[in-house]
Amino acid sequence: MDAITQHFRKDEQPFIELVLGWIREVENSYAPKLTDFLNPRERFIVQSLTGGSDIRVDAYGAYDNAERMRVLLYPDYYVPAQNDYAVTVFTLNYASKFVTLKHKDVLGSLMSLGLGRPKFGDIKIDEERVQFAVVSELKDYLFANLTSIGKSKVSITEVTAKEALISLTETWSEELYIVSSMRLDAVLAALLGLARQKAVALIRGDKVQVNWTSQNEPALELYEEDILSIRGFGRYKVIAIEGRTKKDKVRLLTGKLE
User: Fold this and answer.
1) Taking residues 91-109, what's their average pLDDT?
2) Which has fewest Cβ within 10 Å: 104, 123, 133, 212?
């Protein structure tokens, strides 16, 4: 197992220990284990740690191509059903003709209820509707307590038909870069076409998030499935490390959200 965990960052070790606990729980109980919502990098870690074992892994987030999903770890004889994932989607009812709600407004109000981010999945907003996914265990709590977002009064209605889900297609454009290393500042400079010093300034200026967490360490090592959010520049993801050049530089395949 040490040979596997050495390929992850030190700040990911607590999550790795959590996943190893889930694996032991499934092995000992011969029963499935359901997680909260995990981001793509966390799901990649779960897949890596269960690879080669008798434990199977599936994920579900209600929406097609959901970014955040609940993960089910289960013995190889078990056949999962959709209700095993316990994901509920709500639509917000509010005065949409007079009020514009943004992603940060909805997330902020959900977090202000004292619930952690892993309890919520994707938040989807189109021209007329706002929806969000949540662990089904919180249905009753949200019905009783989510009554306002900012100064706007709101109520929620459960979405029960898949065709009623907001469908937003994300387009990622892929590009191959040659980078000196997988350090955050080196990758950032390549993605944005900036001098290394300017990339460092962005990082030190708290304008860069890696996997939805602010990072101010230029030397942070990036890995496959990492998501980078750069204020003023958009969102990028590390798709694959495709080997090295003769000069020992990294061939890095990335995606940019259009």
Assistant:
1) 90
2) 104
